[in-house]
TrEMBL record:
This is LysR family transcriptional regulator. It comes from Sphingomonas gilva. Keywords: DNA-binding, Transcription, Transcription regulation. PANTHER family: HTH-TYPE TRANSCRIPTIONAL REGULATOR, HTH-TYPE TRANSCRIPTIONAL REGULATOR TRPI. The keyword DNA-binding applies. Pfam families: HTH_1, LysR_substrate. GO terms for biological process: DNA-templated transcription. Belongs to the LysR transcriptional regulatory family. Residues 2-59 form the HTH lysR-type domain.
């Protein structure tokens, strides 16, 4: 394939049959057009224009090529225009499993109603995404940050709490102190959140020595707790509906986990319209639907 820039210049020159008018259309000099045409001719090994005192005229070979170039370039332009249109109308959001299932999925309809012109694709993964490779526009990421090259906005500061079914609480309660829960079956007792909840006391270490159900996500742990299978250590803000309905009970206040959820996206895309729209919506939604965060690391703007 010859250089596309030279092909585009040749197409304009052939359409106008004039290097000067082609230069005006392309924002180039007449000499620049002539140079690009010469480059193309050298690449092909034959002339595309016959040059004379009265101007230029296509050679037979040049005319055959020119006849096919205009529709071909139109198709290329159409393909990119359609891609730009699709990119502007589709928002790809990545989120961890728990945040997606227990918080975001139930609220995305509000964003869709506010922006009916935009489709939302939710990608659920507990792994950090590569924005360029995975085609992701924005992500909800847990951690402390910052992450090089990413703009971040604080969504929430995470607290953790032990939750269980009302039946399990009634069978083993009342509980005087958090350490009392260690005698119950703990779900995923090797989760470091138990150390934080128990204050790294011996209660957590003793619980690890007993046989237990070990699950690899907070979603499964919370569901197992609802079913009365044990006590789960969770972020209670992700289980507000179950706590409000009585499917789960929380016998003790939450404990600061020194963990955060952020909205993140590439710094260079901060002014993309669809990203701005989602950012404004989720920050407002988060402020209304989540407890106000305690003093914490500042957002990047």
């Amino acid at each position: 394939m010859p250089p596309l820039a030279a092909v585009r210049v040749f197409e304009a020159a052939a359409r106008h049959a004039n290097f000067t008018r082609a230069a005006e259309e392309l924002g180039m000099t007449q000499a620049g057009v002539s140079q690009q045409v010469r480059l193309l001719e050298d690449r092909l090994g034959f002339p595309l224009f016959a040059r004379g005192k009265r101007g230029v005229a296509l050679t037979e070979a040049g005319a055959r090529i020119a006849a096919q170039l205009h529709p071909a370039l139109e198709r290329i332009a159409t393909a990119f225009a359609e891609a730009r249109c699709e990119d502007a109308s589709v928002l790809s959001v990545s989120s961890s499993n728990t945040f997606a299932v227990n918080w975001l999925a139930g609220r995305l309809g509000g964003f869709q109603m506010a922006r009916p012109d935009m489709a939302v694709r939710l990608h659920v993964s507990d792994s950090f995404v590569d924005f360029a490779r995975d085609g992701i526009d924005v992500a909800v990421r847990g951690g402390k940050g910052p992450w090089p090259g990413l703009k971040r906005h604080l969504l929430m500061r995470v607290t953790i709490a032990a939750v269980m079914s009302p039946a399990l609480a009634a069978a083993h309660g009342p509980f005087a102190a958090p350490a009392d829960l260690a005698r119950l079956p703990l779900l995923s007792p090797d989760d470091f959140w138990w150390d934080i909840f128990f204050g790294a006391a011996d209660a957590a270490k003793d619980a690890r020595t007993r046989p237990a159900i070990r699950l690899n996500s907070q979603v499964m742990e919370g569901r197992a707790a609802v079913a009365g299978q044990g006590v789960a250590i969770v972020n209670p803000l992700m289980w507000q509906a179950e706590l409000a309905s009585g499917l789960l009970v929380q016998p003790f206040p939450g404990v600061d986990a020194d963990h955060y959820f952020w909205l993140v996206y590439p710094e260079e895309r901060a002014n993309v319209a669809k990203i701005r729209a989602f950012r404004d919506w989720i920050l407002t939604e988060g402020a209304e639907g989540l407890s106000p965060p305690a003093p914490s690391p500042a957002s990047d703007g």
